[in-house]
Automatic annotation (TrEMBL):
rRNA-binding in keyword set: no
Domain Aspartate/ornithine carbamoyltransferase carbamoyl-P binding: start-end pairs: 7-145
Every Aspartate/ornithine carbamoyltransferase Asp/Orn-binding domain range: 152-306
The EC number(s) this enzyme carries: 2.1.3.3
Keywords attached to this entry: Transferase
GO biological process: citrulline biosynthetic process; L-arginine biosynthetic process via ornithine
High-level lineage: Bacteria, Bacillati, Actinomycetota, Actinomycetes, Pseudonocardiales
Protein's organism: Amycolatopsis umgeniensis
Top-level lineage group: Bacteria
Name of the protein in its database record: Ornithine carbamoyltransferase
Length: 319
């Protein structure tokens, strides 16, 4: 193989601290409109495979790859021969001979994405799977850095389902010294224990705090309140009364006032009147739509890192 090796981003744990800081820093550079003339991915071909609906992530990676000079092949949920029984391993062996990057959203797990990541000729990017939404967390970190100038020491209250956005947020924030992440998740809809354990390991190293409870009592003072919609893409609820269980976990002006949070974040899409009131989502504290735009800036940083384009100014070539 010639040319730079590609790098997979399937979990935040695939990034060491230097990688993580580089991607967030590069995302900030993109928010500032720097490097708009550079096309480090020219001559590369990116596959965009979305088995599930997406507005922000699909568009941010597609537009990002195009802006960086790549060409795209897009696959919808019914396009590949996997639908007729071809294995992911065989699919990956074929695609990796032709593509440089494959951006995948699936309702399956991390193992499915790892099956695509067969070699270093084609980078695989997790655009959301059942367990983790790592590129969302990178956009979250970019937005927090843009707003506060730092991540270290920030206090964040996450309210809502312990879904893939929450697990990625826990893995991300726990990497930064003295951050505090308070998760308030509905009973039986908390974070997967494996992610709490992994975040706890990070926190032990960094001095961060990650704490989960299943009620909305005694909310802590925080800088940021974060929520996601109750109906996570690609999932179904396992209890019929889930709306009653989730009802107390709505973010409204009372939650913002009790915590003293200056910033509200939502990964979108939102359902006003469910997980958040319109007053908060559309209010002056909300950076939800700034975060959505930052997904595009952050996606370009991720693409550069995965393509191996961050170590040099020259365009990368297909190996
Ligand atoms: N936040 C997010 O992942 O949005 P999409 O589902 O629209 O990509």
């Amino acid at each position: 193989m010639t040319g730079p090796a590609r790098r997979h981003l399937i979990s935040l744990d695939d990034l060491d601290d230097a990688d993580l800081h580089w991607i967030v820093g590069r995302g900030i550079e993109h928010t500032l409109g720097r490097r708009t003339d550079e096309r480090p991915l020219r001559d590369l071909v990116a596959g965009i495979l979305f088995r599930k609906t997406s507005t922000r992530t699909r568009t941010s990676f597609s537009a990002g790859a195009l802006r960086l000079g790549a060409r795209l092949i897009t696959y919808g949920p019914g396009d590949l021969q996997e639908n007729t029984g071809e294995t992911i391993e065989d699919t990956a062996a074929v695609l990796s001979g032709m593509l440089d990057v494959l951006v995948v959203r699936t309702a399956g797990g991390e193992a499915e994405l790892r099956a695509y990541a067969v070699n270093r000729r084609m980078a695989v990017i997790n655009a959301m799977c059942a367990e983790e939404h790592p590129t969302q967390a990178l956009a979250d970190l970019t937005t927090l850095t843009q707003r506060f100038g730092r991540i270290d020491g920030l206090r964040v209250l996450y309210v809502g389902e312990g879904n893939n956005t929450a697990s990625a947020l826990a893995l991300a924030l726990s990497r930064y010294p003295d951050t505090e992440l308070y998760l308030r998740t509905p009973p039986d809809y908390g974070l997967d224990q494996r992610f709490l354990d992994r975040a706890a390991l990070n926190a032990k190293r960094s001095g961060a705090l990650v704490e989960e409870r299943h009620d909305m009592d005694d909310l802590p003072p925080v800088d940021v309140v974060y929520t996601t919609r109750w109906q996570t893409t690609g999932t179904v609820k396992h209890t019929e009364d889930w709306r009653e269980v989730f009802a107390p976990f709505q973010v409204d002006t009372a939650v913002m006032a009790e915590t003293g949070a200056k910033v509200f974040l939502h990964d979108l899409p939102a359902h006003r009147g469910e997980e958040v009131t319109a007053e908060v989502l559309d209010g002056p504290s909300s950076l939800a739509f700034q975060l959505a735009e930052n997904k595009y800036h952050s996606a370009r940083a991720v693409l550069e890192w995965c393509a191996g384009a961050e170590t040099r100014g020259d365009p990368v070539s297909h190996g």
